[in-house]
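Follow-up to my post from last week.
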Amino acid sequence: MKPRTKRIAFVLLALLTVGAASALISKAMDGNLNYLYAPEQVLKGEVPAGTVFRLGGLVKKGSLKRSDTKLEARFVVTDNRGNEITVVTNKILPDLFQEEKSQVSRGKMNDEGLFVAEEVLAKHDSEYMPAELKDVLAKEHAPAPAKVDGSEIGKMTGQKI
Amino acid sequence: MKINWFKYAAPLNFYSLAGKVIPFFWVAAIALTAFGLYWGFFKTPDSLENGMKEYYRIIFVHLGSVWMAMWLYIMMVFWALVGLVFNTKLSYMMASATSITGALLTVVALATGAIWGKTSWGTWWDWDPKLTTFLILLFIYIGYIALQSAIDDTRRSDKASAVLALVGLALVPVIYSAVNCPDPTQCSSLHQESSMKNIEPNIMRGIIFTTLGFWMYSFAAILMRVRNIILQRERNTTWVSKLKEVN
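User reply:
Got it. Predicted complex:
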């Protein structure tokens, strides 16, 4: 191979790399726009029937129920504005998965209006505050209980009744 | 006192200067990283308000490597640009030396992110915009290194890879905006925002010290590599043949 042909090949290779890179960027940005769907969008019918998509939202308080016999869990995903979708999954739920916390699950709607999840992921925020500190602050800011034992009453009245 | 900076643009002078400062960077790197990790492991809370347990401490390696991977890319483009504009041999050598450490730290960032993701989110990888853009950063580093080593003529490979580095620079703002999304409703993703607002002070101290440690490590590793590159490229000069370590 002549040196010039080599150089041209390498320049083309470089262009190809950049092209692939920018293609991936735009793919990521497309995915960005519909990385996940909110319950409201799903209930409005914005997701084509039968497609696999990601459902994002909060796990409703008190909605998580596990089956006694199978590895099956059901929970309700809500946006706190009344739009709710029930998710059913037989996958292991992640450690951070909790009620009233964010989750992202991937799957599709079935005929009964349930979201059958192939994967359930937990989201977390970037607030790295200690759990203990929150408890301490909660205690400090709680109103002190009024002392009502005999000695206090005695001091208040100042004299024997 | 006037320092003639251009004196150190000559590989001969820079070679000896780098050799003198490398030990200091190593000491600083080890001391800062060790202190940061000690503080991060022993002086920080065991569990966080958002539900994360001790495994969140991987943040001390993850954040430092993420930041340095992106910072080194900017530095690599800086040296490549200096090379293109002033046609100085040493700048290209610096760019080339920076690329390896940058790629290495990108791998560390992706690996620690995957481990953290598996324990907290429940998956090693997800095609989330933040994760995807960072994977492309690794591809661009690899593309730069491949192009650099594919062309035998160093003058040509320097220029070609400098242009590639420049083109790839377009990605750094994309990563930055993907991770620091101004409007969370517009770019929902799995990865959390990288806001530094609500961080417990001891965790913050651990992050700052390990990041500084990684930075000092980058200096040490890059200077060591650039000394090797100088020896390799200047092997036919008389000053190299007179060096004690070569003979």
